[in-house]
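Please predict the structure of the following assembly.
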Amino acid sequence: DVKVTQSSRYLVKRTGEKVFLECVQDMDHENMFWYRQDPGLGLRLIYFSYDVKMKEKGDIPEGYSVSREKKERFSLILESASTNQTSMYLCASSFRPYRGGEETQYFGPGTRLLVL
Amino acid sequence: AQSVTQLDSQVPVFEEAPVELRCNYSSSVSVYLFWYVQYPNQGLQLLLKYLSGSTLVKSINGFEAEFNKSQTSFHLRKPSVHISDTAEYFCAVSLNTGGFKTIFGAGTRLFVKA
């Protein structure tokens, strides 16, 4: 079974702090994604990566950056946390870099971030 | 641009009753369609997907969805729900012209009552 793990289930940070969210997948997937989930808005794509060191902006990249130094690990960085970044953050991965649209995404359990 | 609309934010239903969760999409090109389920305190997992071929697709736990191209819909149905089906359900679309972007709907919370 594919396993996607996220470093923390719950996180509380202060405004202005730099926050790192880590995601690791164990199935040698090419693609990795970071979403935020908010009630009534569903999932919105922040960034995705289709290869090591490659990244593409999603729909809401402002205030975030990402890092993918190894294939299995994809990090989301909040450069200076703000209260409007309080949310559930979900990491996902999928296979096959050139046929991305039809591939199932496998999700981690999520990190619930509270910024005070 | 693609978009996904889930017409009901919450659906309460009694155990063993039938249920339908509605999903409509818009796209100028052909799409792939997905339903994902999120159980409490968990990430999303795939329930079923339509890529091509038969328009009726089924999951292993009794859900089914039918792709209706003329109505641009992909409604999810189950003839008899269980308490354990209580979860949030997300409809999603992605383009079949390549690329990685999947658009998710806002979600429908299904509450199954005893």
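The mean pLDDT of chain A is 92. The radius of gyration of chain A is 13 Å.
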